[in-house]
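User: My notes are a mess, but here's the protein and cytidine-5'-triphosphate's SMILES. Can you give me a structure?
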Amino acid sequence: MQAKKQLQIGIVVVAAGRGERAGQEGGPKQYRRIGDAPVISHTLRRFAAWPGTACLVAVTHLDDDALFDHALEISRIAMPVMRVHGGATRQASVLAGLRALRQQAPDITHVMIHDGVRPFFDAALLERCAAALAQGDKAVLPAVAVADTLKRGDAQALVSATVPRAGLFAAQTPQSFDLDAILAAHEAAAADGGQDFTDDAGIAEWAGLAVRLVEGDAGNVKLTVKKDIDMADQRLATPAIPDIRTGNGYDVHRLVAGDGVTLCGVFIPHDQALLGHSDADVALHALTDALLATCGAGDIGDHFPPSDPQWRGAPSRIFLEHAARIVRDKGGVILNADISLIAEAPKVGPHRETMRARLAEMLAISIDRCSVKATTNETIGFVGRREGIAAIATASVFYPPEPA
Ligand SMILES: Nc1ccn([C@@H]2O[C@H](COP(=O)(O)OP(=O)(O)OP(=O)(O)O)[C@@H](O)[C@H]2O)c(=O)n1
Ligand SMILES: C[C@](O)(CO)[C@H](O)COP(=O)(O)O
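Assistant: No problem, the inputs look usable. Here's the predicted complex:
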């Protein structure tokens, strides 16, 4: 095994094809948008982000200058990209890129040649290729062992043979090389002109270089037909974030001499009463505000002004049911309601289950989504002095996405 070499790796991204198999609609496939950017922008971003990249060359078609300028701008990469015009075949395009790299970047020792339409490779794949180069391999091919059973078909669409798949691999890119060795092989193949190679490892083999196989990545697909591009776009789509909102509410009412208080719609006999314009149910008032808050619908005072005589002595369930209707009219689904009562007396515990049942009924949700809790204020402050009762409420509501 040879000692690890210091590598200066140039990247040649070929993107001068016409994408016949992907169809003409939407223009050349390397410029079609997937996720937030054109295909080629994703590819360039990944190479620019890899610390092993010393120099970046893009091989483009003469007709695509404006498309490439746009893609480069969207990719927002800081590293300069050397642009070269390609040829009529992939082989010719790669050769143009290799020549430019050799001429413009004399320090480069190695090259990774990559299809612009393979935007999903990861840094681990690049590291595997670089590690093989560093061990002294002059030609490195990332490839995936063929998993399907292979058949040979004839012109009549009949199977003529089953091909043993043992030892067969699907070739990927970036195919990685000693720069001088692959440039010489390409120049020789171009001079020979005998055959059109579909990949660079093929040229290396033809030139007598040993090609090292390294593990490819099943995710590193080439976008060849329209369906591949659609799937790539789906793969990059931002996952829908569930629109679950919470609202809170707070209310206080003064306690005066009386015969009982209404809390969560339940009348509890007591030697005091809550003072208010309506029935002064602090718990339902706080929850009404919490529900309205989930859809920015103001607060209870906006909907039921204390100055309006029609709400004098009104049962507060009217307010809560009104807020629940506003939420539902906006498509909201009430997920849960939680109320904390802060009161020195009366004791809430014996009434808690009735209160939860009332809330469930008013909100038309199940009782396990309704919670009522109570605490004293440890005799401190206005609650502690039994001058008032306070309530804090929280509601959660799911709002489904607007139809597109
Ligand atoms: N004359 C060419 C032909 C291909 N390529 C590039 O080589 C890669 C190989 O992918 P492929 O799917 O074969 O691309 P196209 O040649 O564009 O596709 P098609 O064969 O369907 O026309 C692509 O990034 C493509 O842009 C290139 O730079 N120059
Ligand atoms: C280089 C390549 O991506 C390896 O799989 C492939 O050969 C590109 O060209 P093709 O015409 O789609 O085979």
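The mean pLDDT is 95.
User: Great, I'll file this with my notes.
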